[in-house]
Amino acid sequence: MAHIVVEKKTKKYTYEDYCKISDDKRYELIHGELLMTPSPITNHQRISRRLEFILEKFITEKKPGELFDAPYDVYFDEENVVQPDLLFISKDRLHIIGEKNVQGAPDLVIEIISENSAYRDMVLKKKLYAKFGVREYWIVIPEGEEIEIYTLKDNTYQLYKAYGKGGTLESPLLKDLKIGLVDIF
Questions:
Q1: HEC assignment per residue over the chain
Q2: Predicted model pTM
């Protein structure tokens, strides 16, 4: 008796489909898969606000580029559109900022891990950001009060440094930036 194999096909979404969504929920499009993103929890919002405040102050003083926060679309291609928690675009690449979204890889992306985003941020989006050329990627881990910085080398991320409690973060991309983790967590 022959066995019949039925392959389950899931719909591949495109940016056009993504733009037609009319509900109030947040979504991201990764490899053509539409993924809903729940609202961040309180601690996530506090960390995001503190990081944004420190980065905005640095960027206002030094003028190396522009900072944005979620929700704001980063369009990589027709099947990959994400909304990082924070993103930075250097002044020599400001041309990728469009009227509706960022068209291409930001120089720096920061994701704050939450219980429902750990796999997406640490695996899916990490690979996606490397593939499309995001030069520096920060993963903020609230539970452990740490921040991991990854830098891009040969289309893969290398751990630059993991900063723990009491440490002072220094970004290879944003020269002269120093952030005491005590000011974040």
A1: CCCCCCCCCCCCCCHHHHHCCCCCCEEEEECCEEEEECCCCHHHHHHHHHHHHHHHHHHHHHCCEEEEECCCCEEEECCEEECCCEEEEEHHHHHHECCCCEECCCCEEEEECCCCCHHHHHHHHHHHHHHHCCCEEEEEECCCCEEEEEEEECCEEEEEEEECCCCEEECCCCCCCEEEHHHCC
A2: 0.92
For the stretch 18-75, pLDDT in tens is 999 988 888 999 999 999 988 899 999 999 999 999 999 999 999 999 999 999 999 9
Assigned fold of 38-183: tt1808, chain A (3.90.1570)
Residue ranges per domain, the chain? 38-183
